[in-house]
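Preprotein translocase subunit SecB, Lunatimonas lonarensis. Tokens?
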Amino acid sequence: MKAKFSPLQLLDFKLLESHVEFVIPKESELDVKELFQSYVVDIDFRLRENDKTKEILLFTTVEVNEDGDKPLPGYKIMVEGGGTFRIQDSEALEENLKNNLTQFSTLNMMINNLRNIIYQITNLGPMGGYLLPPIDITQLLRDKAGEGIK
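Tokens:
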């Protein structure tokens, strides 16, 4: 099947910061799958549109098990990335599609890139690779929009 390309283009992706720490588990805490599933994941992002260049800039931070002074055993992870996007012929697109590409699709692509990096940097670690679970992007966008309402 021949793929049709999206009007959304990822022009550039950069890993801006990463940090992995290993908290040694006790023997009773060695169910890796269960431990990984209990990690708290925090995601933050900042989206800016440059009207002059028509580029979308998105900075995304993913923190895993960075829960205060008492992280769970295993990995403590923080990665931050920046992406530059452009939508081809954005004037010709419906406003709903343009908004979906600008917000939902860009954030989804950034999280997927960071998921891959997290897996790569933990893969050789003592507990093997940590694969970030699927994320509800719609809820992230709702939560971010709700921050301004307080």
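The two ends are 48 Å apart (CA to CA).
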